[in-house]
Design a protein that fits this description.
This protein is of the alpha+beta class and about 240 residues long. It has 2 domains: about 180 residues, 2-Layer Sandwich (BirA Bifunctional Protein, domain 2); about 40 residues, SH3 type barrels (Roll). Helix content is about 25%, strand content about 35%. The chain has 5 helices and 12 strands. It has a 7-stranded mixed sheet. The chain has a 5-stranded antiparallel sheet with strand order 11-10-9-8-12, with no helix packed on it. Helix 2 packs across helix 4 and helix 2 crosses helix 5. The longest helix is centred in the last third of the chain and has 22 residues. The protein is globular. The termini are far apart.
Length: about 240
Amino acid sequence: MTLPKGWPDRVRLVRFDLLDSTNEEARRLAATGDRGPVWITARMQSKGRGRRGNAWISESGNLFATLLLAAPHTTAAQLGFAASLAAADVVGSYTSLARVRLKWPNDVLLDNRKVAGILLETAGPETIAIGIGINLAHHPDGTETPAISVSSATSLTVDPGGALGNLAARFAAWYGTWQSQGFAGLKPHWLKRASGLGGPIRARLVDREIKGVFEDLDHDGALLLRCDAGLTRITAAEVFLGGAR
């Protein structure tokens, strides 16, 4: 198999024409004892999904890929920040980086619309699946968080294979930063690109919503929200910028 240009050393790649989802294939590989690192990609998905079980539009022309990687489950969430930085680098390679922002915990925005998302899941003992979807050619309409594609924003036609090679290389670089420096090495780079930092946001938790000011990230990537009751630490939520309902 010919690997994309710039493919990182000692990282495998498996390609499919159609899968239910690349994260599910990562789970199946992990069940056989595979601990990666291996990227799994598909031209189309029949059951693509995002966080909280949301469906992910999986038309041919977009990028759907999952990295199966050995990592402690206790620190796995931090790798979502490495993945979002890598995905932002990929999107930014087709346009100005100033148009590309990051939304906590790990969405990528282009012109303030969602262009990429990351889904982290445990795949097996001490292994995780980092699923990344980038809207290269298509994007859904009518979503709660407005979406966009690279093509609609730039009029470029992007090859998913080339984008995957770029993504794998960029993730390898950010992963190396995390390995050597921990989350402290990722945090300033993520905050530099953060959308909504210092402004009002609305965080939708499982049982309630909280409004406040996005003040900072904690040492492990948790969101620090300044509310009327004080500083609130949030580890999982759906975030909406501006704080309005």
